[in-house]
Design goal:
Length: 530
């Protein structure tokens, strides 16, 4: 009986497992999540800094970026609450493409406020209830402040301004006019479908970023075979994923024993005959261009050249998937049923020079929306970051085409939402109002961080913005270039409504999830045998 009393709280976990309870668990969650927020905080806004990410794997690859999702995807995180923020950053990237840093910073600021409230003995469920009501009020204020473009000309102008705003916090900021134009042209070609697979981005080192251009049609980074036509009009294309090398015995460790060299020659001859029959089947489709995902050896290439068929080998999987999509063809592996195969078609296939490289351009493809953006730049690191920046802009523009509502940026929408939440807090009795005030402070922290990253006085500028919004100047935001508050409508700082709404909802949900935690259990590490 005495032993039972002495061990009143027996552990049910196996040896080696650990458990943190109550305040310790909550504090560990808050600290981990806030550390992730502090890590990416300095990359926020037009004057945000870049991070160098160095891989520890073979090759020690280096990535230079200020994209929140890329940074968080690349780092190994041990804290479970920090992993929640990494996941919402990925979700934001998949959903709307931009706002990946904002959502993490906003969630970590909410947790900073929650930590102070928990220290004042406000129950976590009360904080969550306050946050939920504040989020609804902020969402309603955001919807009221959003405006629709109206006519076609104004909509195109809004798209250009949104692209410029998105690119202004990236490496492309100095050439944002040029790249905003490229991105808007590419997205408007999609005619509202929003299928970014139609837009291919190719990186070609050399020249500078301003030399980048948009090409109508599809460009494949490959070359024609030797002695084959370099220009094909009214092309009929067969796209395949099939081995065009000599057939190897696919059983590991298998051997073929022969009693003379003549038998070896017979085996080789049989292989050649088999390959010849395969090539004849392919040529029998009545095509003038054959594109294969795998290698094409010399003998089949020679057969295609004799038949006047251009053969392109080793078009990587991404390449042939896109090609099949834009030319309207099927990807084949066997060639016994020609009637079941849809051939691809385009008006012209020709070889073009970009820098010092030869590439193949497909013009007049079945899907007229398809286009290729060719990025030029000094190094692979710059091109990699330029592609990530352009991808963000393209994602935001496709989101805007689906939902054409826009809002003003530069911290303007955050101030409108924070004011709506403060008004609600003033009318709400009880401790929930403290949580609402904390929510409003977290919203105001985002323009403050943008100012801090630009080396400006955040307290002064945020208080000026508050006063301007209270006086009814609801378009007021931070003009980071002049270091003053200004009218965002005149500055042309416009953001996509969907991006901001997603930041608000995802950030609040992630913060709620972490505030609920009161126990962290770590399993026993698996023991190595032997």
């Amino acid at each position: 009986m005495a032993t039972m009393a002495g061990n009143a709280n027996p552990s049910v976990l196996s040896e080696g497992a650990s458990e943190e309870k109550g305040e310790h668990a909550r504090l560990a969650s808050f600290v981990g999540a806030m550390a992730i927020g502090d890590l990416v905080k300095s990359t926020l806004g037009p004057k945000g800094m870049d991070k160098i990410l160095q891989s520890v794997q073979k090759g020690n690859d280096v990535t230079v970026t200020n994209d929140g999702a890329t940074i968080l995807k690349s780092i190994y995180v041990d804290n479970p609450a920090a992993k929640v923020l990494v996941d919402i950053s990925k979700a934001q990237d998949d959903e709307v493409g931009d706002g990946t840093t904002s959502v993490v910073v906003f969630a970590s600021e909410l947790l900073r406020q929650a930590e102070q409230l928990v220290a004042q003995h406000v129950h976590p469920m009360t904080i969550i209830q306050g946050f939920r009501e504040a989020c609804e009020a902020a969402k309603k204020a955001l919807e009221e402040t959003a405006r629709d473009a109206g006519n076609e000309e104004k909509f195109k102008e809004d798209l250009t301004n949104i692209a410029k705003t998105t690119l202004s916090s990236k490496i492309l900021t100095h050439d944002k006019e040029h790249f905003a134009k490229l991105a808007v042209e590419a997205v408007l070609r999609l005619k509202g479908s929003g299928d970014l697979e139609m837009i291919q981005v190719i990186q070609k080192p050399g020249g500078n970023l301003k030399d980048s251009f948009l090409d109508e049609g599809f460009i494949l980074d490959k070359r024609f075979g030797v002695g084959q036509p370099k220009r094909i009009e009214n092309a009929k294309i067969l796209i395949a994923n099939t081995p065009m090398d000599t057939d190897k015995i696919k059983i590991y460790g298998a051997r073929v024993r022969v009693d003379s060299m003549a038998k070896v020659a017979e085996i080789e001859q049989a292989e050649r005959e088999k390959m010849k029959r395969k090539c004849e089947k392919i040529i029998g489709y009545g095509i003038n261009c054959f594109i294969n995902r795998q290698l094409i050896y010399n003998y089949p290439e020679q057969l295609f050249t004799e038949a006047g068929v251009a053969a392109i080998e080793h078009a990587d999987f991404d390449g042939i998937e896109r090609l099949a999509l834009v030319t309207g063809g099927d990807i084949c592996s066997t060639f016994d049923n020609p009637e079941d195969v849809q051939l691809g078609a385009c008006d012209l296939i020709e070889e073009v020079m970009i820098g010092e490289d030869r590439l193949i351009r497909f013009s007049g493809v079945a899907k007229g929306e398809a286009c290729t953006i060719v990025l030029r730049g000094a190094s692979e690191h710059i091109l990699g970051e330029a592609e990530r920046s352009l991808h963000d802009a393209l994602c935001v523009l496709t989101s805007t085409v689906k939902d054409s509502r826009v809002i003003y940026g530069g911290g303007c929408s955050e101030m409108i939402m924070s004011r709506a939440v403060e008004e609600l807090a003033a009318k709400t009795p009880g401790k929930r109002s403290l949580a609402m005030e904390g929510f409003a402070k977290a919203l105001r922290a985002i323009p403050g961080i943008i100012c801090d990253n630009g080396g400006l006085d955040s307290s002064e500028l945020v208080s000026q913005m508050r006063a301007a919004h209270a006086a009814g100047e609801s378009n007021t935001g931070i003009n980071i270039l002049t270091g003053e508050v200004g009218d965002m409508q005149k500055c042309g700082v416009v953001e996509c409504f969907r991006v901001k709404q997603q930041v608000l909802l995802s950030g609040t949900e992630a913060a709620e999830m972490i505030i609920r935690v009161d126990d962290i259990i770590k399993c026993t590490p698996r023991q190595r045998e032997g």
